[in-house]
Amino acid sequence: MKIVAVTACPTGIAHTYMAAARLEKVAKNFGYEIKVETQGAMGIENKLTENDIRQAQFAIFAVDIEVEGKERFHGVKVIQVPLQEALKNPESIFAKLQR
Amino acid sequence: MTQKSRTSQFVFSCPLSSGLHARPASHLAEVANQFSSDCTLTNLRNGLVANGKSVLGIIASDIRHNDRCAVQVSGPDESAAHAALRRFVEDALPQCDVPLAGIAESSRSTVPPKQLRAGNVTCISGTPVSGGIGYGKVVILQKMTLPGNLGTQAGTDSQREVERIKEAVTAVRHRISEKLKYSLTPTGAAVLQADLAMASDALLVQKLKEQVLGGKSAAQAVVETGEFFIDLLGHSENEYIRQRSADIEEICLQLLEQVCGTSPAAAVVELREPSVVVAEALAPQQLLELDRHWLKGLVLEHSAATSHAAILARSLGIPTLAGVQKARLALTPGSEVVVDANRGLVVPQFSPAARRFYQREQQTLKRRKDGWSRHADQSAMTLDGTRVEVAANASSGEELILALENGADGIGLFRTEMMYLGRDRAPSEQEQFAIYSEAVRAAADRPLIIRTFDIGGDKNVPYLNLPREDNPFLGYRGARIYADHRELLQAQLRAILRVSTEGCVQIMAPMISSLEEVVQFKAEVEQAKQHLAQNGIAFRPDIKIGIMVEVPSLAFFLDELSPQVDFFSIGTNDLVQYFFAADRSNPRIASRFPARHPAFLRFLEQLVQDIHRAGKWVGMCGEMAGDLRNLPLLLGLGLDEISVPAAEVHEFKRSLARLRTSDCVSLLDRALACKDTSEVDNLLATHQPLHREPLLTEELVLLGSTSQSKEEVIQEMVDALYIASRTDDRSLLEEALWSREADYSTGLGHGFATPHCKTDAVNADSICVLRLKEPVNWDSVNGESVSMVVLLALRNSEFANTTHMQVFSTLARKLMNEEFRQHLLKITTANQVTTYLAEQLGIPLGANGDSSTAEQPASPFSP
After folding, report:
1. pLDDT exceeding 70 applies to what percent of chain A?
2. Domain with CATH 3.40.930.10 in chain B
3. Which residues, given as ranges, of chain B have pLDDT below 50?
4. What are the structural domains of chain A?
5. ipTM for this prediction
6. Fold (CATH) for B114-143+268-346
7. Is B21 part of the annotated catalytic residue set?
8. Taking a C-beta distance cutoff of 8 angstroms, is the pair B78, B6 a contact?
9. Domain B381-687 falls in which CATH fold?
10. Which residue among B124, B554, B620, B800 is the one 20 to 30 A from B287 at the CA level?
11. With an 8 Å Cβ cutoff, are B749 and A16 in contact?
């Protein structure tokens, strides 16, 4: 399964990246292919392309602020959680996908 | 109206932002009192009319900023009085607002630190007016009130009572003058000077006489007159004027004491142990009577950052809070309290939590200071090994000591004119000897450049009889008046020479504009030496003599001047205004001709080169040297010394150590080629020495912390950044970190927490690492406790350093890695932490965080 994700938090210097790292790691454990875009203090990094999004079955928004370029995800099933969920209990997010 | 007596009038608007308060009012009254003509002042806003010869009358007319006032003069010398008053109002009055040393009103928030709040420590807040922390037992001074029930001593012989009033006024004036004589600080002198003016105020004396002639006893007259003025001033809408009622009360009490022969208020309190004095308000003389040895702090109810007592407390270095409401009720006499005048708090109960906090606080303050003195012990050197003396300017013993504590390599400019101001006669040789001697002892072997008095028509020194001038800055001042005041100069030179054996004292002459003046000045020094030699008094025969470069003409006469002097010191304030013919006190033009103008930079570059070619030493004092932004330019110029504000010496030393002379030289070259100041400013803005500060140093690694709560941990880390001078505003930094914690805890599981913020409160992007001996609760996501804390602080700046942000994001990602975390938990020394992180994050060890990237060139100066 291919998944895309966006992480973003208000300060954008720590948790955005921690959540990204966490999601990448846990996705791997579940055997999923994931690409995480970070929207932090340095702007958008590891930007999701149109192609990435089209191929993905799910999009995870682990965010505490509005996602930039939300319209890109039109037609994809989006699961939005508070960012701390990705830090606290990322497994549950992926478990949701399986249901 | 007789032919002789004429009346004329002019109107002005008050240029002073705090209104026509006591000090300018006393100057105005002084001018008016020089003439026999009557002078009436009418505040056109409120219609209040005042006798222009009365300080109290002027103050009571409540003249505020931009109020329009009519000055009416009538009498035999009307035209001279009119001209003098007009000149005063136009030229001198706008200068009267120069605040006395250190009245900067603090706008800090007085929210107690989170740790104290968490420990349920009660705090009372106030406005800090003089920094520091003081511990002691509460001593409450009750408000001084004029005794109302004085008994009606029959005032039968009104003529005798008038005499008693006169004698009392004379005695009180004498008493204040005596204190003035021993006042070693210019601030203290200015305050006493205002008291003196008030004690001899025309309106006060007139009221007293009226009362006595109306049948009152002298004592009654004083009480009623006092009440009249206290009421008058106390009802002013102006806070500043309301505060003056404490001054008048003090003076009336002294008068009463004279009249009755005893002290009716008995307000003098003897301190016998470390004490914190609590009062509603304090008159300056009351403060001076307290034993400074035991006086550890002051808490005032009045919100009076500008009260004379507050100013004085500041100059004496006594931690002081003002505006502490109901302090006398809230604080129990004899109880142990802390006055935290850095944060604006009084802690009324020294509970174990408060004790723990302040024990740590004391260590923090000490370590921060020690950190500075480490710089202090080192001479300032650039990255490529150029040594530059970082000296300080000082006008008083206190300032000098502050400068040395902050690591000054010497005193590049010790101003002496303050000693001559606000008194009836010049300071004696002995008096000066005492002051210089204290200064030399404090300076030890460091150079102390004493500048002989720089006085001109802009300063009010009655015993010099200096004529008022239309243009005093181009007039009769500085070394130009020495020929007419030789005795004064001789006394000062002798005093300086006498202390020269005790250290590295040098003499500097101000406002030199020609070779003749230098030759004359040196002859004066010779004469003073001879006088001492004849009397068998020791001095240093080879004492160095230098001159200020304030007049551009000197630049074209260096070949002749250089052989005559040992050193030059560039005084930029005057040099800039003479160079551009732009009055620096005129805001409409001064800002257009700043010292950073390329034309002035070119002039300086030539000047410094020529002086060096002549083999002489050259330093710089004045505002240009005191602006940290200019430092790269000054290094580029190749000055031997810069003399900067006492409080900022350590900042200059730290910044200097981050600069490279070769870079500065090429920066200056580019600045010299600029077309205007804004181009120079842009050039300087691209230069961000702070970004060269490493993100992490061993100083910021705290292993084995014994903090017991999340609040203490954050406080400890904020303190570590404060000790390392990476923040100067701990409460702002703490607030930023806690506001982030308020969103949700930064404890992210695995026993790690990452508090972070983006804030103006840090001077440099920083990582701080802390490992706890015993885990603490972090309100964590999983309720689990935390034993490792990694704090990230990013500077909020338009020149945000993307490399540092990159490092932060890498670190954040790494913290999700089990192996990385385990390593950090096991590591044993601070050095291992910095080495490991440098390697893992790809940052050069102990070097610049940004030098390895393409976005920020290794040297911002290289084209």
Report:
1. 99
2. 691-841
3. 1-3, 99-109, 264-266, 690-691, 847-863
4. 2-98 (3.40.50.2300)
5. 0.90
6. Glucose Oxidase; domain 1 (3.50.30)
7. yes
8. yes
9. TIM Barrel (3.20.20)
10. B124
11. no
